[in-house]
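Handover notes (outgoing to incoming on-call)

Open items:
1. Histidine kinase/HSP90-like ATPase domain-containing protein: sequence verified, structure written out, both below. Nothing else pending on this one.
2. Nothing else urgent.
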Amino acid sequence: MTSPAASEPPTLVLDSTDVAPRLAREFLAKHFADWGIADDYLGRLIVCELVTNAYRHGEGPIVVRLPRDADDGRPVIEVWDAGNSRPVVRPENHAAVSGRGLRLVAEFVRDCWGVRPLAEGGKAVWAKLPGS
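Histidine kinase/HSP90-like ATPase domain-containing protein structure tokens:
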């Protein structure tokens, strides 16, 4: 007996523009509502930060995927772009006017995030949301 193929996670392809973060937040909010996840604030914050980084520092279209972890069902936010540069958590600098987004993501997801290269080039930055 074969098991049915796992369904593909919700996926959104965005042009790399300044409206991409808003569209990604709306996409995440819709799917979290479909899944019965009432509190989507952290997910919207994280997808916004990751998409903003892809828009500002990546290349090509931006792909947002929302898989669920196979072991515990928790949502994972993945943001892909064609750029080869890797995001870096910057040292704390109270005088900086930007550069805090990835530090916030790392703290909110309790360091359950990472970057992986894509076979076709580019990278996927992912963050697994904490459980309740």
